[in-house]
Automatic annotation (TrEMBL):
This is STAS domain-containing protein. CDD domains: STAS_anti-anti-sigma_factors (cd07043). Residues 1-109 form the STAS domain. Coiled coil: none annotated. It comes from Candidimonas humi. It comes from the Bacteria. InterPro entries: Anti-sigma_ant, STAS_dom.
Length: 110
C-alpha cells in the first residue's frame, strides 16, 4: 500500500493505492490521524485501492471519530466495486460521506 498526500482547494487528499490490510492498516491510521490534526477537510481517495480488510475499516472508523471530535469533515471517494461492497456489507457505507470521484468529493468539502 502507498499513500500520496496532496491539497486541492484547501482540502487535503490522501490517495491510497494497493491493498489495505492488517500489515498496512497501521500506516493508513498514522497518515489519517496526522492529516486530521492539520487539515480542515480530508478526502481519502480509494480509486487505486483494490482491497480493504477489517483492519483498514477500523483505521477509517477511528479517523471518522477523530475528525468529528475535531470539527473536521472526512469523505471517501473512488471506491472500486469490490471495496464498495466491503463497505456495504459491513454497514460502513452509512457511516461515511462517499463520492464517486475526487473532483466531486473536493467540491463537496471545499
Amino acid at each position: 500500500m502507498q499513500i500520496a498526500e496532496s491539497v486541492e482547494n484547501q482540502v487535503t487528499i490522501l490517495a491510497v493505492s494497493g491493498r489495505v490490510d492488517s500489515s498496512t492498516s497501521g500506516a493508513l491510521d498514522e497518515s489519517l490521524q496526522a492529516a486530521i490534526v492539520k487539515a480542515g477537510s480530508l478526502v481519502v481517495d480509494f480509486s487505486e485501492a483494490r482491497y480493504i480488510s477489517s483492519a483498514g475499516l477500523r483505521a477509517l472508523l477511528k479517523a471518522a471519530k477523530a475528525a468529528r471530535a475535531n470539527g473536521r469533515r472526512l469523505a471517501l471517494c473512488g471506491l472500486s466495486p469490490l471495496v464498495h461492497e466491503v463497505f456495504d456489507v459491513s454497514g460502513f457505507s452509512s457511516l461515511f460521506e462517499i463520492h464517486a470521484d475526487r473532483g466531486e468529493a473536493v467540491s463537496a468539502l471545499a
